[in-house]
Amino acid sequence: MPELPEVEVVRRGLERHLTGGVVTAVELLHPRAVRGQEGGGAALVDALEGARIASVSRRGKFLWLTLADGSRPVTAPVAGDDAALAPAVDAAPGPSDATRHLVVHLGMSGQMLVGPPGRVRSPHARIRTRLVVPGPGPGPDAPTGPDTPVGPGPDAPVAPVPGPDATAGHETELTFVDQRTFGRWEVVTGDPVPHIARDPLDPELDVAALARRIRMRRSEIKRVLLDQTVVSGIGNIYADEALWAARVMPFRRASSMRQRDVVTLLGEAKAVMERALAAGGTSFDALYVDVEGASGYFARSLAVYGREGLPCPRCGTPVTRIPWAGRSTHLCRTCQVL
């Protein structure tokens, strides 16, 4: 399942390609992709068509596109603007906020692929959305990632290459591809993620207060890290990596840890996710790609996750894999002694 770095990579891509775009058409290709939507698929289509993408935000592993009136302009991010690529800080709208958001649950294999109309061709496409986006388009021959199930077919429409005056915008397509069909889209009003805690990359996160909250838990520290109501964005991969970096045994009771050790652990979680983000995320297969279909390459930098039997990068002890809570935990029995 995509974790914080992978979702942030997708968020940045959507922000870069779609901000300011107006949805002109929505095609539902699989009913499971809209399960949970109040009013069903027709309600989702009605909410999206004619709406403008005002912003793209994320908290932890959760992603949402804020919708605005399609008749009102929104300025798109400027290419190369570092501020536009910074992790979005959500405004945490209150219960009285009537703003609508398209919440995207990626599930185990969800992909949000952006390209010229007709470019993305996949048997696992679940929702196809067409938009008109401000500014010049990439043209029909724009590159896409090598691992994406894309490619213009013989009957695919070709997007026109915009001329010098591209103020009218260009047409693009957002396709939700989901092989395992655990993902879904849902339009909601008000706070899009009321139950989700802040994540390690959130500048508003109070690390000391979070550490105190973690130490109140009697569960194993890894289980607490995976609880999205305590701290969001950390999944199995980055929990194992952060625990290894902080030298903490995953099965230690959170309540038995010192405050400074929990603060260190949270710092390591932030650091490893920042490195993963810089590498485009972690891709073990073609199920995780960015919006252009490119895979991340942080898997080659992992210290313990997925490295059973290989030497620990710190001490050389073979990495151990232990079945735990329906998944695997990877650790170094020599280094992780706290």
Automatic annotation (TrEMBL):
Q: Which domain of life is it from?
A: Bacteria
| Domain Formamidopyrimidine-DNA glycosylase catalytic as annotated: residue spans | 2-183
Q: Show the InterPro entries listed in the entry.
A: DNA_glyclase_Znf_dom_DNA_BS, FPG_cat, FPG_N, H2TH_FPG, Ribosomal_uS13-like_H2TH, Znf_DNA_glyclase/AP_lyase, Znf_FPG/IleRS
Q: Which SUPFAM superfamilies match?
A: Glucocorticoid receptor-like (DNA-binding domain), N-terminal domain of MutM-like DNA repair proteins, S13-like H2TH domain
Q: Which reaction does it catalyse?
A: 2'-deoxyribonucleotide-(2'-deoxyribose 5'-phosphate)-2'-deoxyribonucleotide-DNA = a 3'-end 2'-deoxyribonucleotide-(2,3-dehydro-2,3-deoxyribose 5'-phosphate)-DNA + a 5'-end 5'-phospho-2'-deoxyribonucleoside-DNA + H(+); Hydrolysis of DNA containing ring-opened 7-methylguanine residues, releasing 2,6-diamino-4-hydroxy-5-(N-methyl)formamidopyrimidine
**PROSITE patterns to which the protein is assigned, alphabetical:** FPG_CAT, ZF_FPG_1, ZF_FPG_2
Q: Where are the transmembrane segments?
A: none
The GO molecular function terms of this record are: 8-oxo-7,8-dihydroguanine DNA N-glycosylase activity; class I DNA-(apurinic or apyrimidinic site) endonuclease activity; damaged DNA binding; double-stranded DNA binding; zinc ion binding
Task: Name a single GO biological process.
Answer: response to oxidative stress
Q: Which cofactor does it need?
A: Zn(2+)
Q: Which Pfam families match?
A: Fapy_DNA_glyco (PF01149), H2TH (PF06831), zf-FPG_IleRS (PF06827)
Q: Which residues form the signal peptide?
A: none
Bias class Pro residues marks the residues at 149-159
| Record-annotated FPG-type domain positions | 303-337
**Keywords, ordered alphabetically:** DNA damage, DNA repair, DNA-binding, Glycosidase, Hydrolase, Lyase, Metal-binding, Multifunctional enzyme, Zinc, Zinc-finger
Q: Where is the stretch described as Disordered? A: 132-159
Q: Which family does it belong to?
A: Belongs to the FPG family.
The protein's name is: DNA-formamidopyrimidine glycosylase
